[in-house]
Fold these 4 entries.
Entry 1:
Amino acid sequence: MQRPLIVAVMFACLIASPSLARHRTIVDANGNSAGNVVSHKTGATARVGAQYASRFQSYIDDLESRGASVRFMGGIRRGHCWSGGLHPCGRALDVCQLARGRVDHRCNLPSRHELGQIAAAHGLYEGGRWQNSDYGHAQVGCTAGCGDELRTTIVASARSRRTHVAVASFTPPDRLAIH
């Protein structure tokens, strides 16, 4: 009598396994749970850190409400999280990027300046603001390179026995004071 019950339970487990696999928790490189970001226009999806998914989702929704068509996105990648690469820890999202700083024109993304403002409104930093532009990349928080859009670096070198390099940074003021 117990044998048919055991067989029935095993059969039910086999049938239920694929549906359970779809609901399995997905984690990033650091073991944090991942969330999904979805384009409601095109259906494109990307995985980001669960704690950041709502920021990225509102960013995508805002872009699409302004006429963008997000055809593809890139979120969590393999590797280790570090200051120059936040994709493995779910803190970065690439929107329509073909290569660093180059996006698919069919996505109709706004200008770098406007994209930076939209990202900031959602608590994100847009890579198009960097001196070495990564237009189409948005991330949570700011790494050591943030703010480079305002900084001009002057490098001078002189040759002697050794090469000497002098680096000076200048950050322009927000407003000019006229006295």
Entry 2:
Amino acid sequence: MQPTVIIVPGLRDHVEEHWQTHLHRELPESVCVPRLHAHTLSCRAWVDALDANIAAARGPIVLVAHSAGVMMVAHWARQYRRAILGALLVTPPDFGVPLPEGYPAPHVLEENGWLPTPMERLPFPSIVAASTNDPLARFTRTIGLARAWGSKLVRLGNVGHMNPASGFGPWHDAHTFIRQLTRPVHEQA
């Protein structure tokens, strides 16, 4: 049975040229957690929306998260226990430090339940795909997150925040990482 890929976007509005949008089109059976129109900064609302999508999915599940979507997955894993094959976690932000202009301030994120960042080992295999020049997180912070979560760390190089503003649209390596997460455990060793 093919796994259900659940795409977990970040907090920002839908971007047609984002790699997750392309991936969703390339995987017709995939599901994308819908964007919230109310309570858009509420971590709880996002985590509940993610859980509703996971609960409704059929068969094995792979999560593909970007930016704040990575934090949604970490908070979800702390609160819920459902079977997940694995998660691809791309360019997690560091919500504990001031982000670039246009992003919420740390105190706003804390008020909305995003902080502190969960640092427990994730109960499923995961890959953190990290940029070495992400404006939303120092690479050393991303290394620390990957270690805490028990994730395999993949260094993507200087790819900014892996979004259209950094020059990225389709990202075919996502398919490779998804395949790695869906291989039987004895093949992953």
Entry 3:
Amino acid sequence: MVHGVSDDYEDDVLRSLRRITRAIDQHSRHLATTFGLTVPQLVCLRVIGEQGPLSPSRLAREVALSQATITGIVDRLVARQLVERSRISADRRLVTVVIIAAGTALVLQAPSPLQERFVSRLAKLPNDERMVIHDTLQKIVRLMGGDEIEAAPMLTDARDFSIEQ
């Protein structure tokens, strides 16, 4: 093997990974500075707006996040007066999360989460190309030692899941 050829591929792969990371980070920062939302908050707000009142556990399943993460997200959305917790059944222990007017207005103003745009573009690719991308990304995850890391299917800056959410 000629010295330099392998390094070029490695550098290009690392550069591509860095571009992906930066695109996610830039989108997350734009949402935070322009709308005061993290990507998970926006995704939850959209799901509640589309599906109507949801229990926190159902919301957690819908967005593939832990119950603890959802509790923090809902707390912040309630504090911002974008959603309300409601007890609509005879059992006062059962809580649902309901989007309110300010939340609906914000969802209409906010850009779609980066993953919506990505998924839409990915879906337009031929199946064989999608399979190659899938397989290649799975290999990259293994090469980086990330196969044991849990991840929700949303493109977001890791800081979006901090305790300060």
Entry 4:
Amino acid sequence: MFTGIVEELGSLLAFQRSSSGFTLLIKARKVTGDLQTGDSLAVNGVCLTVTSREGSERVAADVMPETIRRTNLEDLKPGDTVNLERALMPSGRMGGHFVTGHIDGTGSLLYRREEGNAVVMGFSAPPGVSRYLVEKGSVAIDGISLTVSAFRGDSFEVSLVPHTLSQTNLGQKKNGDKVNLEGDLIGKYVEKYILGMEKEAPETGEAAKEGISIQWLQEKGFW
């Protein structure tokens, strides 16, 4: 589990392709200090497992084909800057929101504009992501916990303060660049229960579908 608060900007040293997948070699100073083989590391918001260490500042992580299909990692080139965050420790501060590192889909930067001391960025969002977006709700963009400031169905906006721009790679993005998107985990569970959950009927032992609808809410006095 992650918070979406980027700890460090790292550098991609190598992107190696093999018959079974890919391996990323990343250089960083802070997050690599206590990482061990088997630990989780979010790279541009993608939860990866550290497979080896090379000295004190380099770690390698394998990337399976499913991850390549669902993220922008294949677009990375040696020398690119990546957002890094170690898994949350129970004693840490929950500064962002619950981020799993399991990407729902990718979007693209549509535009950016300055607004006072902030920069507003607009992104496209596929249906698998937009269904979990609400104005003033949370979204993770390349592993960065951000607040949705406007939502238009297939696109949304976020507003970034100077600190976020300087401590993450969003400030380097150009129109058309692809980003990893992860919707709010809580929204996914709410959706599952509202659309209906399967429950075993005691008299038959078979799965019976029980859902929550607007009609059900009205009958129970909630609407």
